[in-house]
Amino acid sequence: MAETPSVIVVDHPLIRHKLTRLRDRTTPTAEFRVLMKQVGALLAVEATRHLPVSEITVETPLATTKGWCLDPIPAVIPILRAGLGLADGVLELLPESDIGHLGMYRDEKTVRPVPYLERLPLNLDSRGIVVVDPMLATGHSAAHALDLLFSKGARREATVLMVLVAAPEGVAEINRLFPEVRIVAAALDERLNEKSYIVPGLGDAGDRLYGTP
Length: 213
Ligand code: URA
Description:
By secondary structure, the protein is α/β, with parallel strands linked by helices. It is built from 6 helices and 14 strands.
């Protein structure tokens, strides 16, 4: 695990392999979807590292022993559209989670997020929160999502931003605005281009996930 003060890059051979297939422009949509979900599950292991657990007892076939259960169950908040693909992997591991949806699209001129949907679970103030967005580019969408969640009571230190690919610019923006929020990523890329796409990146994650032009 390569950890810097600002972003945790989960450096694992499976993630490297699958991320390379996701980057490949010739990878078809069907495979892209499967890979996105698989990497979502792999990243979730690190993203959920700090979730609180309660001690319980459990009866095995042989004895009574000590065990643990997640307490409280976290909320998973994908940023639509592309966050849905990565969140599917998180939900494989955390099927009990409540799911919040934050819909926003990027205005291509201003590269600012335009919100169109907000549907959040209750009790944001008392549980861990995993915000899921594959591409941390300028950081504007993630910042908008985090701002909204904190205004509804979510705790900064209990919130993690899980992304597939991060740009240094996006990491810097989230670090600046929300230094308590952990960022977990599969890769930290080189830079943004003039259209605020991540280079080398993987293109438009939503378009590749859903097969739209
Ligand atoms: N959103 C994407 O889907 N890709 C990028 O490179 C940047 C933002």
